[in-house]
Design a protein that fits this description.
This protein is 19% helix and 30% strand. It is of the alpha/beta class and 221 residues long. The chain has one domain: Metallo-beta-lactamase, Chain A (4-Layer Sandwich). The strands form three sheets. It has a seven-stranded mixed β-sheet, covered by helices on one side. Strands 8-9-10-11-14-15 form a six-stranded mixed β-sheet. A hairpin with a 2-residue loop joins β8 and β9.
Length: 221
């Protein structure tokens, strides 16, 4: 069946074949967090984006691995409840931005900053720092080494959803920072066909969201 990105807690995962990667999306936990398992098509090596909850199901997806790394998009508790158990079971590296690293329940193996690269076997993700939801929130981009330049893929954590930016606690400075980072580092750099995989809920594209940027600025959230 074709990938839809519409997953439910307790339901089956959804899988999608990208150039160089297999993507598996699973909804877990009381807040219906999305966890994304990325597997290199050439080497079989894997990276997990947000070990949010339900370690048993996440480890079932990983199987015998190898799971190279777990990337946590930001430090909020609902995005790392299974992190300690999955890391202990797999020996995977733990990656996060330094501004959120102290919020995680296990030590961070390697910090990642804006512009850094995260290998997934023969493939590679790139890090986009999006300040505002938390100080160290990051998104992860994938363009298959430029071969998907017209239609990249972007894992945004809680920084961008269908309908707007993530929660900034009604803080105008945090909201302004997040909007500026989204406009300058995401919308100004990536095309409309970019597929967006958020930390909760259904997927979207930058093209679907771009016409509403001014509305988001005006409403202030």
């Amino acid at each position: 069946m074709a990938y839809t990105g519409d997953v439910r807690v307790g339901g089956p995962p959804d899988r999608r074949e990208l150039a160089g990667l297999t993507l598996t999306k699973l909804a877990v936990g009381a807040l219906a967090n999305n966890a994304y398992l990325l597997q290199c098509s050439r080497t079989g090596e894997m990276v997990l984006v947000d070990a949010a909850d339900d370690a048993r199901r996440l480890l079932g997806l990983v199987g015998r691995g190898p799971l190279r790394a777990i990337v946590t998009t930001h430090g909020h508790w609902d995005h790392w409840q299974a992190l300690a158990e999955v890391q202990a079971a797999t020996g995977a590296m733990v990656l996060a931005h330094p501004d959120d690293a102290a919020d995680l329940p296990v030590p961070v193996t390697a910090i990642v900053r804006h512009g850094d690269r995260v290998p997934v076997g023969a493939a590679e993700l790139y890090v986009i720092h999006l300040r505002g939801h938390t100080p160290g929130s990051i998104a992860l981009g994938y363009d298959a080494g430029g071969r998907l330049a017209a239609s990249p893929h972007l894992f945004t954590g809680d920084s961008l959803f269908p309908g707007g930016p993530g929660n900034t606690g009604s803080d105008p400075q945090r909201f302004a920072q997040l909007m500026s980072d989204l406009e300058e580092r995401v919308f100004a750099k990536l095309p409309d066909a970019t597929w967006v995989y958020p930390g909760h809920g259904r997927d979207t594209t930058l093209g679907a969201e771009r016409p509403h940027i001014a509305e988001w600025r005006a409403r202030g959230w």
